Amino acid sequence: PATVVLPLMFIAGFGGGLLWAGIAAFLKSRLEVSEILTTLLLNYVAIELVNYFVYGPWKDRSGGNFPNTPLFAENAWLGSLGWGRLHTGFMVAIGMAGVVYILLRYTTFGFEIRVVGDNVNAARYAGINCPTVILITLMMAGGMAGLAGFVEVAGIEHKLHHHLSQ
Fold this sequence. Notes:
mainly alpha; globular
């Protein structure tokens, strides 16, 4: 049922993005490798990984030569909100914006994120564990990117295809 499938997809999207961004987060926080470079390069790896699955083991064999997965079952679709392409994934985006706002504005960790973002040297001097803040922040951002992918796939496309990330 949708009450089971959609939350599992939500968790898988967030978890997958979190783990994927964790590679760049680890490299940035522990080895001081540029997160811009690593995330840009990891994007190409992710694109090729999706291509492998949609051209290979997950390809829809029912007809046509288009590289995509079979259409998801309807219980794995986000519900529509009225007409057009607006769907309940809009609520996910609004909810995540609210969570980020509250986190950054009203929590100690949010304050640490802001201080590290403004001036790493001042954050170090203030006793903030900068590598940990960087690691967690980058991983949470990756998780939210994974949620964006979940919303796109479950809300609009209803399948995975090779042009999804373009």
